[in-house]
Design a protein that fits this description.
Blueprint (H helix, E strand, L loop, with lengths): L1 H29 L9 H20 L9 H28 L1 H6 L5 H28 L11 H25 L3 H14 L8 H4 L5 H8 L2 H13 L8 H4 L3 H4 L1 H20 L3 H4 L1
Helix pairs in contact: 1-5, 2-3, 3-5, 3-6, 3-7, 3-10, 5-6, 6-10, 6-13, 10-13
Length: about 280
């Protein structure tokens, strides 16, 4: 029994060391050779936010009528950037590090997990920027801020589950990357990042669509973070828009299902990765 426990501890320690080193290496390589380096992890979402703000807020007059809409747009942009980056880079992680799989024996899932964790580090840096702008953007910081880490964990698990599933498919079918690129674009417009969900909910012809959008896990988690971090009195969530408690729990259950499915598919096909690559 003691030998079994010792072997487990050694295996866990080894996996943790590999995971930590891969996270550091991956994060450094992302900005290797660039003049601004890690600052790009902040500049990219800020530049994207600036474009969206000018186009959709200034020109097209998108707004939810609250003083926090601008910083809420920044928050949504950063959160979506994480999901997009984590799933896209996680999908390619196994193929990109195929040489490592053939040379070193370690749990394959660490490659995908380390890649998505690199994206999470960028998001955590961006959250500091969001909070900074929140002080000047009429954000209401309350005790609900304590709930944000739980939503961040949910967002990470959602991204990890999708990345594990896509990463497995990508090993065998490279066309998956093109399909996911289109799917991401469609999902982006189906998630209220650039437009307030009230724009849909207040339309009498499409009010039903707002509830469907809200049970999408990516919508639910972004709206939860916006509400708890920035504007507890202004932002709609699945809890305020849907009365049925079972439907309210659907996006959370869907996140766990996607994570389980990603792990299941990955574990089933990962033993053959080295041969295929």
């Amino acid at each position: 029994m003691m030998n079994l426990l010792k072997q487990f501890q050694q295996h866990y320690h080894y996996a943790l060391v590999v995971f930590r080193e891969l996270v550091k290496t991956d994060f450094k390589l992302r900005y290797q050779g660039s003049f601004l380096g890690v600052l790009w992890s902040v500049l990219k979402p800020l530049m994207l936010f600036a474009v969206m703000y000018v186009v959709f807020v200034r020109f097209l007059k998108f707004s939810d009528g609250t003083p926090t809409y601008a910083v809420s747009l920044l928050c949504g942009t950063c959160l979506w950037s994480f999901f997009s980056e984590a799933t896209s880079m996680g999908m390619r992680a196994i193929v990109d590090r195929g040489d490592l799989l053939r040379k070193i024996h370690f749990p394959n899932y660490i490659i995908v997990a380390s890649t998505t964790m690199g994206s999470m580090i960028s998001l955590l840096i961006n959250l500091i920027v969001i909070i900074f702008f929140g002080f000047f953007g009429h954000a209401e910081f309350t005790w609900r801020v304590l709930l944000v880490p739980f939503s961040i964990v949910q967002l990470y698990l959602l991204g990890l589950g999708v990345a594990l599933l896509l990463g497995t498919l990508y090993v065998y079918f490279r066309d998956v990357s093109h399909i996911w690129e289109v799917a991401l674009q469609a999902l982006f417009y189906a998630t209220p990042v650039i437009y307030p969900i009230s724009m849909v909910a207040d339309n009498k012809h499409f009010a039903w669509a707002a509830k469907i959008l809200m049970i999408n896990p990516s919508t639910q988690v972004i709206m939860d973070i916006r509400r708890n971090l920035l504007a507890p009195d202004y932002v709609d969530t699945v809890w305020s828009m849907i009365s049925n408690p079972w439907i309210q729990l659907f996006p959370y259950a869907a996140t766990l299902f996607i994570l389980w499915l990603g792990i299941y598919v990955f574990r089933k096909y990962s033993p053959k990765f080295a041969e295929v690559l």
